[in-house]
Amino acid sequence: MNIDLPLILTVIVGLSGAIWLVDALFFASQRSERLSGLQRQHPHWSKHGSVDEKLFTEAAIREASEPLAVEYAKSFFPVLAFVLVLRSFLYEPFQIPSSSMVPTLQVGDYILVNKFNYGLRLPVTRTKVWSMGSPDRGDVMVFYPPHANKQYYIKRVIGIPGDRIQYRNKRLSVNGVDVPREWLAEIPGTRRIQVGLEEPRSERSHLFQVDQMRPARDFSVVVRPGHYFMMGDNRDNSSDSRVWGQVPERDIVGEAVAIWMHWESLFSIPSFDRAGGLH
User: Fold this and answer.
1) Domain locations in the chain?
2) Model's pTM, two decimal places?
3) Highest mean pLDDT among 25-34, 61-70, 140-149, 184-193
């Protein structure tokens, strides 16, 4: 079951803020008046150890203290509001759950997703409120896929609107031009998995790998307006736009910009050896 964290966080922030606001507008002044009245009834309330101090304290707790719900709302609202703004408009952490982006990203990598590079969007509704940049070929992007529209996926942008994408014999071309690539190595002991370096745009290359024992899944497609064609760097072990189609612009989450930690499981030791920027 996928937990809709943005919705839950937005509801909690809205509810706690509403409780705090209603209390401030309608009830806080009444408690303040009751407290002033108690101070007048017990003129020596501030004298330590006096009878007035004891009686005043007991009465203040009983008649003028904040309800528990208001206390919690005032404590949680600033923190949760900060978290909501941070993860909705600035940066959000994301854990890599599968091997579809190997060798660029490994299972257990923790990455930072930039939420403003492609424009600011409201949480839950995904409505863009401020246009900035847009995805480019070669970007590693987090998004909601068409077939699982409440779950984050991460792939590489292969085609932008209007591009003609072709894949033949494990060779990628965009608008009739082969994407430059260079084979680097074969994974030891596999006799079939090759790692290469691909350059989808000038001076920005990335690693990818193919399994020569698997069919190429050749295709040719034109990217529709307002959509993006996504593929995993692990070309023969990735469920991506070749399977479930193109990603509409409204379902973009953000750009993956850095690895900050690797932690494969609860029983392993977190590592920062892989920390660094992404291409």
Assistant:
1) 5-88, 96-277
2) 0.84
3) 140-149
pLDDT-above-90 percentage for the chain? 73
Q: Give the Cα-Cα-Cα angle 200, 203, 209 (nearest 5 degrees).
A: 45
pLDDT confidence of residue 181: 93
User: Are 39 and 56 a contacting pair, CB within 8 Å?
Assistant: yes
Per-residue pLDDT at 279: 67
51 pLDDT tier (thresholds 50, 70, 90): confident
CATH number at 96-277: 2.10.109.10
List active site positions.
100, 155
